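Form 7-S
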Amino acid sequence: MLGAMVHRLAIVVWALAALGSVGAGCEFKGGRPFGEAGQAGWRPEAEAMRILPGPRFVDEPARALLEVRVELADAMGDSVKASGVYRFELFDAAASEQTVGARDTVWEIDVVRLEEHEAHYDPVTRAYAFRLALEAEEAPAMARLLRVTFLPTADTRRLESEVDVPGVLR
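Output:
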């Protein structure tokens, strides 16, 4: 009986030692734990923006939509949330053409209040998702250029990105 108890105690000691050695190899991203000198004042903020692949036109009953997802990234390249105004501009011609066509449609969407973040932020893709109503009843058949500008409320830095949105095949 005493031998079984010693055996169990040895297993527990071995398991704790193994966990300690595994934890010793862990390191915080950037090599420093939170709160160390030089890191305490850093706050993540949007420094880059990209339009995720796959923006598309969608025909719904009585209206057409443009679906687009926008990801913001901090200085380390990680996804980040930020408050500000998103401006979407849709141009008549694709960027691959010699000249960009006239601006067709403009949307400005505030994402400042908590409710606005909840309405647009998708935690699965870690991006903001927008469904923008077009004036036409049908989505365009030709590709269009989409320009997205983000104006953060924290400072005056503008972030911009462009992408071609393929037309709808009929």
